[in-house]
Structure formats: structure tokens, C-alpha cells
Amino acid sequence: MKRIWKTLTGYVLWTHDRGNLHYDVMVTLILAFIFLAPVWINFKDKPAERNPHPTEVVIYPDGQGRLVYEIGSSAIRGEDDAAIRSSLLRVIEPIAGEVELLGYEKVADGRGRIVSYRAWVSRQ
Q1: Contact 22, 7 (CB under 8 A)
Q2: CA 67/CA 121 separation, integer angstroms
Q3: Is 108 found in the same domain as 78?
Q4: Do 93 and 50 contact (CB within 8 A), yes or no?
Q5: Same domain, residue pair 35 and 67
Q6: Mind listing the pLDDT tens digit for each residue in 69-111?
Q7: Whether residue 65 sits in one domain with residue 32
């Protein structure tokens, strides 16, 4: 009984010599816990879901020293020119700061649906 108690105390206090059978058993138990515990234990530590930003904005240079902002059509509200310009500025200004909208064009897919707007801006 004393020998069993000494062996168990050695496991708890990690006093067995390296290369010993008991040392190998301890290491095996630790590795088994590391690799098998996530299967059996629900730690509830899943990463937070990342929702994509509703306004898809792609920025690229136009070759004349200006930047072109391409904004997904889902972010733009309005049918007339003033509403479209206002919506474009509402999306662009948080990114670029205060800017002047020089012009824009609608980008359509093969079926003629508007998929995005291309806007040219300059800093004020």
C-alpha cells in the first residue's frame, strides 16, 4: 500500500526520473488530455463570427493622381442623381474624410443589373 501511495505521490509531484516508465505514463496522459479533451469537453470558446461590412468598397488609383472608389450597389439608395451622390458621399467620407465628388458611373453586369458604382473624388 505504501508503494502505491509513493507512486501516486510521484505522479502528482512529478518526481519520477526522466526515461522511467512512470514518467512516460505521465507524459502520455498529458498529451492524451491535450489532444482528446476538445473532443469530449465543450469549452465554448469558438471564435466570434465576422460579418462582412455591408458596404463593399474597393479603392484604386486612376492613373491621374486621383483615387477611384467602387462601391457595391447595395449600399447606395436612391434613383435620382442627387440621392445617388448623397449616398456615395455617405459611404466614402468615413473612409476618405471630407471630399468632393467629381463624378460617378454605374457598373452593370452582363444582364444589365447595376452591381456597383464607380466614383471619382478629390480632397477638399
Answers
A1: yes
A2: 7
A3: yes
A4: no
A5: no
A6: 999 888 888 888 899 999 999 888 888 888 888 899 999 888 8
A7: no
Which pLDDT tens digit goes with each residue over 14-64? 887 888 888 898 899 999 999 998 888 877 777 665 555 566 788 888 888
Q: In the chain, what is the straight-line distance between the N-terminal and C-terminal CA atoms, in Å? A: 87
| 46 domain residue, yes or no | no
Distance, in Å, from the CA atom of 69 to the CA atom of 116, rounded to the nearest integer, reads 10
The tally of domains found in the chain comes to 2
Whole-number Å distance between alpha carbons of 58 and 116: 10
Domain that holds residue 67: 57-123
Q: Got the DSSP string for 3-39? A: HHHHHHHHHHHT-SPTTSHHHHHHHHHHHHHHHHHHH
Q: Say how far apart CA 56 and CA 51 lie, in whole Å.
A: 12
Whether residue 64 sits in one domain with residue 30 = no
Q: What is the pLDDT of residue 54?
A: 61
- What predicted TM-score, i.e. pTM, was given to this entire model? 0.54
